[in-house]
Amino acid sequence: MIPTLNLTRFIRQQERKHPHASGELTDLLNSIAFGVKIISQLVATAGFKGLQGYTGTTNVQGESVQILDQESDRTLIELLGSSGHFGMLVSEERDTVVTASEGRESGKYVVAFDPLDGSSNLGSNIPVGTIFAIWKKREQGRPASVEDFMQPGRALVAAGYAIYGAKTAFVYSVGAGVHGFTLDPSIGEFILTEEKIQSPARGRTYSINEGNAGQWSPPISEFVQAMKREDKDLQTPYSARYVGSLVADFDRNLKSGGIFLYPADKKNKSGKLRLLYEAIPLAFIAEQAGGAATDGIRDILDLIPEDIHQRSPLVIGTRHEVEWVRRLSKER
Ligand code: AHG
Ligand code: MN
Ligand code: MN
């Protein structure tokens, strides 16, 4: 059976539903998908192409940069740069914004991305990923500015993620449902494998770094205790699942249900994960699939970033559990 819908055709189909579409967003999404195919190969072959290990530098996050972090970042910057449709980029690996080359400031969009998520897992064969968010500039006809990133997630035009695991998957939304594609490496095409992904109402797993338990606030400690307690009415205990790659934990919860938490704690006052290119794009996907995402209390999609690398607590996954944490957090 010949697969008829690849990502390029599917994106084009979605574009045709918007008669005034210029095709720029289509080009941007295809440029990101192209970059994901290249990063997939980099991750798969790093071990024998001398791409394993660290660059010896530290990024703006204060984290040691892996060669693959840098190569993934460079791949996306070059492909998006040559697409001509972005006015400005934010990357986890770049201290400051990346502006479009001369004469290309007319790009309608700004893009924020985490080029390689979960890279601490690269030494072993644990899935890692890429996460991206696309906003329209607040005003057209002028060069992009950092202000164009200070928009809430509710203003996103598109967001998505890739996972480099047993298969390379590409999951995205333009606000009309969430759709999943699987890379067929034999033809280099992303084939539609999950149309209109809908999360279940609730899950059976919870994901949190229990090593931080001594730092949690009381509502988080109370919730995690409830996850472990035998209670027929609450249908607990749940199972613990924590990969250490946000995209992998998120993808499992999106499809099978469950909750992921990276709360603020005494060590990380605003949590560890970044609002612009981790929390907001995944919150957009979660809500499009019927799930939810908060900073414990406020919807992530309502938060307005003030700094391109600002961190945020993140509670994300199926609505039943995210609302449970919100109730506990409000009571305290
Ligand atoms: P990144 O590799 O882009 O820096 O992201 C790593 C994040 C996220 O993927 C994961 O959920 C979290 O860090 C794990 O943090 P801990 O190791 O502190 O649990
Ligand atoms: Mn990340
Ligand atoms: Mn990263």
Give the overall pLDDT as a whole number.
94
The CATH H-level superfamily of the largest domain is: Fructose-1,6-Bisphosphatase, subunit A, domain 1
| Gyration radius, rounded | 19 Å
Number of helices: 7
> Termini, distance in Å?
56 Å
Largest beta sheet: strand ordering: 4-3-5-6-7-8-9-10
Tell me the number of structural domains: 2
| Shape annotation | globular
Beta strands, count:
15
Heteromolecules bound? 2,5-anhydro-1,6-di-O-phosphono-D-glucitol, manganese (II) ion
The chain-level structural class is: alpha+beta
* CATH C-level category of the largest domain: Alpha Beta
Unreliable parts: none
Summarize the structure.
This protein is of the alpha+beta class. The chain is 30% helix and 23% strand.
Written account of the structure:
By secondary structure, the protein is α+β, with helices and mostly antiparallel strands. It contains seven helices and 15 strands. Strands 4-3-5-6-7-8-9-10 form an eight-stranded mixed beta sheet, with helices on both faces. The chain has a five-stranded mixed beta sheet with strand order 12-11-13-15-14, with helices on both faces. A hairpin with a 5-residue loop joins β8 (168-173) and β9 (179-184). α1 (7-16) packs antiparallel against α2 (24-45), α2 (24-45) runs antiparallel to α3 (67-83) and α4 packs across α7 (319-331). The longest helix has 22 residues, at 24-45. 45% of the residues are buried. It binds 2,5-anhydro-1,6-di-O-phosphono-D-glucitol and manganese (II) ion (2 copies). One manganese (II) ion binds next to β5.
